[in-house]
Amino acid sequence: MKNFFISDIDNITPGKEVHVKGWAQDIRLMKNIAFIIVRDSTGLVQATVKRDCPDFHKLETLSRESVVEITGTVPEKVQSNIGREILVTSVELINMAEVPLPIGITDNVETDMDTRFNSRFLDLRKPEIGRIFQAKSAILWGIRNFLMSQGFTEVQTPKTVSAATEGGAELFHVKYFEKNIFLNQSPQLYKEMLVASGVERVFEVGPAFRAEEHNTPRHLNEFTSIDIEMGFADHHDAMHMLENAIAKGISNFLENVRDASSFSVVKEKPVTPFPRVSYLECIKILKGEGYPAVHGEDLNNEALKIIGKKFDGFYFITDWPTSVRPFYTALLDNNPEYTKSYDLQFREIEITSGAQRVHNPAELKRRIEDKGLDSDDFEFYLRTFKYGMPPHAGWGLGLERLVQVILGLPNIREASLFPRDRNRVFP
Ligand code: ATP
């Protein structure tokens, strides 16, 4: 097993021998000297090979991106602008890379997305691409640690289901032996059932599938959803949990990923609480700007762009109309035309939807039917409300959307290792 990494060279006393294993990113061969830039997951080092090195001849056939093991010593004075150098005593070729490479790793040529994603394993070797996933991991762990600190239990729920969470056309149909079933759009019903099971604070990080036909820079057909549900809580409690989870995700990223703020739009831990603006206030803002907003309808991209200009960063839009929210959303106590719901936005982009949920079984059954769904299909879910269901609230946060806005990525596909969209189910 490799247990010495390129960044460990920074702590080595000059003159000491080191063994470096990695990829030969670049090879410059001259008459009496050669330079190999070796890369591993922690950084780069220049390997300086003099002609008197017995392995000098191997460099004539060494191809870029081959896997090598280099042995050498750390010089007293580093003469490479990379900031790390070893003076090579031996070069071992572990595995040769074929020539030519399907896409360049360091070349300054713009490669289109399709070509990049067809060879994603190579694309990910580019440091500027690899670090997106270091960021994603750090953001997720910040959120996860925060939720654990708040007494949440992480769970896994089925992705093959016989009832659609929200109905609608956004479902992938799957043949499951003799039956036709769906890929789950969201763990919503399961996390509520777990609250009924006595897991008062529950969260899941898992795939969610949406058969949305449109190809947009903000939609994937398979994305990672971070979902929470809390018993004995309302929408205000859930919003509070969300803003703190986001702040912790961002601070974990900024504190633990090298040069984080140099490639991120969000450069500081955001101040909490985030601003809150109600749906009705949004309609007023839009009308004030001369935009023909229709009261009771969802806010489209254009409307959200106008609202987003009023807030620099994260903010909540609260109290959405009942007509545009799912059946399980609780209604405002004093006005059933509106719900105890919210979206978290970053400028014009929605990152999270959440709400307090209905906990009364008769009301829930009625709301399912009001949406034109068959309540018999939801019997497994409705049952859990009949034997002691506390009031509860939660949210669903799209991890790739969150990474997209934090890093300012133009397309959500950049935040997915192997994106799935209308045309791509490969590799
Ligand atoms: P949108 O209006 O942006 O299509 P939605 O209202 O369908 O989203 P929800 O069903 O409320 O989204 O899902 C909660 C969160 O999951 C969203 O705020 C978003 O972060 C994420 N999400 C939803 N659909 C997608 C998708 N197709 N691709 C990536 N993330 C998504």
Which helices and strands, and how do they pair?
Elements: E1 17-29, E2 33-40, E3 43-50, E4 67-73, E5 85-95, H1 113-118, H2 120-123, H3 127-149, E6 153-154, E7 160-161, E8 173-176, E9 179-183, H4 188-196, E10 201-209, E11 222-231, H5 235-256, E12 276-278, H6 279-288, H7 301-308, E13 314-318, E14 331-332, E15 335-339, E16 341-346, E17 349-356, H8 361-370, H9 379-382, E18 392-398, H10 399-407
Parallel strand pairs: 3-5, 6-10, 12-13
Antiparallel strand pairs: 1-2, 1-4, 2-3, 4-5, 7-9, 8-9, 10-11, 11-18, 13-16, 14-15, 16-17, 17-18
This protein binds adenosine-5'-triphosphate.
The site of adenosine-5'-triphosphate has 15 residues, from strand 11, strand 17, strand 18 and helix 10.
